Amino acid sequence: MFPIRKKEKDVVLKDGHHRVPYGPWFDDLNKLTNEELMRMYNVISTGSYEFAKNAWYFPIGGDQRCPIMIAKGYKRPTTSNEMIDFQDTALILEKQFKEFVDAWDYGKITTRDIENAILELFEIRSIKIIQD
After folding, report:
1. Are 65 and 76 in contact (CB under 8 A)?
2. Which of 47, 52, 76, 105 is buried deepest, with most CB atoms within 10 A?
3. DSSP character for 7?
4. For the residues 102-126, what does the mean pLDDT come to?
5. Within 10 Å of residue 4's Cβ, how many Cβ atoms?
6. pLDDT greater than 50 at residue 65
7. DSSP state of 36
């Protein structure tokens, strides 16, 4: 059935529901749309791509995109102009998703953590949709 969570470890949301605490990176993940989360989830669950770490500024030597770049739908740059755009975009996303990027780059979270967090977000969002 459903996993039972210990209440002392739960975080109470504004709507009164409980969720497992993941950390500040979870809040950054929550900024993504359902479509973006689904894109990231599909890549993780199929194992079809290995996300890069610390590849925000110089994406040379192959396809090196982090989970946020994949979620946002950014493709690997193939020209020098695309690389400049990639670097500019990466700087913006790095600031917008700082907690997530740091947790990913420093190995504080794994793809399994991200996958579980995405499922948690889908659960929270679907409960909210049903209640409205």
Report:
1. yes
2. 52
3. G
4. 91
5. 6
6. yes
7. H
